[in-house]
Amino acid sequence: MTDRFSFDEFDEARSARPETTDFDRIVAKGLSRRGFLTGLVALGSAASVMGALKGSAAHAATSRFAFKPIPVATDGTVHVPEGYEWKPVARWGDALFSDAPAYDAAKGVPSQGADRVFGENTDGMELFNIGGHQVIAVNHEYVNPEINLPKEQEEKVKSEADVRLLQNLQGVTVMEVAETPEGWAIVQDSPFNRRITNLTPMRLAGPAAGHEWLRTPADPTGTEVLGTLNNCGAGRTPWGTYLTCEENFNGYFGATDLEAKLPEAFARYGIEAESVYGYEQFDPRFDLVKNVNEPNRFGYVVEINPADPQSKPVKRTALGRFKHENAACTLARDGRVVVYLGDDERGEFLYKFVSAGSYAPGAPTDALLDEGQLYVAKFAEDGTGQWLALTPEATGMSAAEICIHTRQAGSKLGATTMDRPEWVAVNPRAVEAYCALTNNKNRAVKPNAGGDETPVGGPNPRAENHYGQIVRWYPAEEDHAADSFRWDLFVMAGNPDVHKDAYAGSSNIHSGNMFNSPDGMMFDTTGMLWIQTDGEDSNEGDFLGQGNNQMLVGDPASGQIERFLTGPKGAEVTGMAFASDRRTVFVGIQHPGGDFPDMAGGLPRSTLIAIRRTDGATLA
Ligand code: FEO
Ligand code: CA
Ligand code: CA
Ligand code: CA
Questions:
Q1: In the predicted model, is pLDDT for residue 42 greater than 80?
Q2: Are 366 and 382 in contact (CB under 8 A)?
Q3: How far is the CA of 161 from the centre of ligand 4 (A)?
Q4: CA of residue 55 to ligand 1 center, whole Å
Q5: Atom of ligand 1 nearest to the CA of 123
Q6: Ligand 1 nearest atom to the CA of residue 325, by list position
Q7: Which domains does the chain have, with CATH numbers?
Q8: Confidence class of residue 210 from pLDDT cuts 50, 70 and 90?
Q9: In sequence order, what are the beta bridge partners of 469?
Q10: What is the pLDDT of residue 396?
């Protein structure tokens, strides 16, 4: 694993589908001819969905962009527009408590006390105003063995202590931050500070809790689990709790006997005898030979109460089990809780959960994410779509089975195979939601791991799509609980300097704002969409002129998109949260290359940064 690799890409490389077969080659050949035609068709249909945007952009009376867009960058640091400044707030290894071990510029974090420091590889985050305290919850998606373990170990764990080090540097940090004369900083020893790791006790709740597939020798009840894995995107509930989403959990499990026969259902989730980290060599809980049900206890959305450091996190199985990206919460017209959920894997699905009960401020909330209905999206070519209810009647599976083998349930209903659903964002100013479909080199090339075909069409209009697009839907009757919607594409990323067909992108993409692989997304209170990228930053070939990963802002009304930030080479820009006064936005820089952010020749450090206007005005 290198520091230039996002975990998504790493997981794909590790779990590459079987070598191309003769059949694949024939299909691919047919498609390369057909790809040209479908490209034209896609361009036609995309042109029509983008038509409205083009018109309104041309007539926009005033720009809603408060900043001067910046050019691409290929260097090793962060750039923001004129009149803005950025500073590091928390870096991998920074102390949350005064008794934490010191970070070593050459070796990183020592294993003793690794759960007392800010973890590695920041991802999704949310900020909570708790009695005037700014408390931020930040995910630590994965660790990079290359910089966490001694060089001579060649990225391999050699002891239980190595495993504990890696386990303690992942999960979630909850910490108080405060503005000082030198900028935002961690409030060391704040009573809100807490590390949640791969080892923290948590409760399993909802339809799958207690099911036999969740029972293990250590937990015969199937209701208590240690830790959360691969915490990717995030969300927040209307009642002020944090949602952290378990994505590529599969890579943590392995079998000490590589010939061990694994359950058939594991294949759909990429759970294999060979693990990424080698935990199973020293921690039997991760050994599929000894604990075959342990992986069934991961792949969920986990609810954390940031206001109470003693509270036990809860895995909400009703929201399904898959490679969860984020959890975008909103309310239906009648107050039921709606959570949009993407499954980030090539050809997997987009989901929605609707609670049975309604949210009322001050009323109990514990059942809201346990009781309700999970749906999967089916998009039609004509710009309409449906949410298909994953019920026992429709799937032939029990309620618990649907929550454990959610992907298989979606396949049974013929859900639309998507170009890797990453973050969903709900517009606070209009009844509409957006999902970043980051890219999918397998579109029209091969089926998903469940054998579902991935034809070109609908919101996935390009074969071998390496640029990505953002789909937007408008719920029927302006109600997020409705079971149908209309959809269009907000943007198709592309490169108009290199391509003249659909791969040039939609009409709101030009040489000055191009990017690839949209991933993180969040709305600000004014209804502007902030878009972060996790893509190819070679700045060559198809990606020439796109530079490093970046953050852009889009105007849903006009379709205009402008570049706000560029990240350091090798990094992904992911996760963001506004301070309560909206004069600061916190942004995550994950897996940077070089010596970011210290620029002193040390190890590259994943970092939470704060961005402000130099005149102190609000951002959004
Ligand atoms: Fe962790 Fe799909 O991003
Ligand atoms: Ca990542
Ligand atoms: Ca992501
Ligand atoms: Ca990604």
A1: no
A2: no
A3: 30
A4: 34
A5: 1
A6: 2
A7: 6-72+89-222+231-247+299-613 (2.120.10.30)
A8: very high
A9: 437, 492
A10: 98
